[in-house]
């Protein structure tokens, strides 16, 4: 049994109450360890440790903060195999994906912000009269970072890295569904020599640990990634306390394929944008709109490709679709497939749970599922399923597809496939989303603003936007 511990004030420790939660391996549907079932008293200890560390950390020269963060990045790289195996076991994702994407991105996050702070500068405004304005930037103090289960270490470090780079100290909570790599990160931070209390990791349930963080008066800001309902709850708690909030929430992203697209590229990428990580990426394009002239051709070719995706154990070389993250999540996804049928949808492929053999027979596997024949405004096309399920819908004009794409409470990302760049530009401007990809998907440049509109969230992460979020600006006007 793998025992996970909290990381508070530089020490690894159980929850003060001694209570634990089970940690389940989704590929096998079996318990393989425990995590601390922490509560407000553990959060209090973490806040105290972070407060104690803040004066020294915020005054630590940026070169030294950068050096320590680069050391963490280096240790993540050195432990690539171990971290990828842990991530895959904890989450159910294919091992190859964890090795290629999740873990390299975690070290890239540390490296990116460790070097960004070396280039940071403040604004200076010269005025016509004899005065100057200089804008000072200072860290906020103790900040909170709360992350989800779909890209565990990747998203956890995406928040922690800019926070500590900017000189804050952090209380962080990974998802209780996938806590393992956050725990391994705490070991690596100790090895790297990160000063005690700069990063504190409290494991446990959202309504206990996460809620205690949102409520804590000493936590100045909350950076949250997760579901929209949770985001609302955090905002309701933290907004009246005037905390800074960055909320990266759910999505139901449109993938718009025009007849003049590069067909093979659009097809191959759409397979990926539909089913990568079992469809459990907030950026997956779950609503696929195809111009009618190529609808049948695309549908036939898409089904053919999806049929060849192997559903299997995460560590198998040829597995393309691993396990979904948990039994409740599997049941939720399957219930949406039933809903789609009730709403008149036709299952073109998939639609069933997959039962593998041997050790994996109790794992949580679902066939990649393609559905057509649904209206764009039905529940299946409006609610976030967050699994390996996509719908296909034909369209006849730009105007029509924009209405269908924008009929959503969400506005995280979208993808447009066309070789007509004027059209791409026209549609991109009218799409209600924070991120638009044209002829590509999930092409990430960490300098760009990342975030959603509507119920997909508030605020932007990435590049200077993240460093801005984790700092307070003060303008000093000097009359000369
Ligand atoms: P979730 O909202 O259930 O949980 C996210 C985190 O919030 C977890 O750590 C959880 O323990 C914690 N939490 C739960 N209740 C809380 C509370 N009352 N107060 C404070 N914290 C609380 O989300 P999830 O199921 O882990 O993740 C899936 C969701 O995340 C999907 O909706 C997906 O779209 C979204 N997501 C968004 C992005 C993005 O960048 N916009 C990225 C990845 C995932």
Number of E-type strands: 25
Distance between the ends: 68 Å
Give the helix level as a range of percent: 25-40%
Tally the structural domains: 2
Strand content: 15-25%
Q: Major sheet: order of its strands? A: 15-18-19-14-13-21-22
Radius of gyration: 23 Å
CATH superfamily of the largest domain: Aldehyde Dehydrogenase, Chain A, domain 1
* Uncertain spans: none
The largest β sheet comes out as: 7 strands, mixed
Assign an overall shape: globular
Q: Catalogue the ligands.
A: nicotinamide-adenine-dinucleotide
Number of helices: 15
Level-1 CATH class name of the largest domain: Alpha Beta
Q: What class, by secondary structure content?
A: alpha/beta
At CATH's second level, what is the architecture of the largest domain?
3-Layer(aba) Sandwich
Give a structural overview:
The protein has 480 residues and is α/β, with parallel strands linked by helices. It has two domains: 2-249 and 456-479, 3-Layer(aba) Sandwich (Aldehyde Dehydrogenase, Chain A, domain 1); 254-446, Aldehyde Dehydrogenase, Chain A, domain 2 (3-Layer(aba) Sandwich), CATH 3.40.309. It is built from 15 helices and 25 strands. The protein has a seven-stranded mixed β-sheet, with helices on both faces. Helix 1 (40-59) packs across helix 7, helix 2 packs antiparallel against helix 4 (95-116) and helix 3 (80-91) packs across helix 4. The relative contact order is 0.14. The structure holds nicotinamide-adenine-dinucleotide. Nicotinamide-adenine-dinucleotide binds at residues 146-150, 155, 173, 175-176, 206-207, 210-211, 214, 225-227, 230, 233-234, 248-251, 282, 384, 386, 412, 452, 456-457. The site of nicotinamide-adenine-dinucleotide has 31 residues, from helix 7 and helix 8.
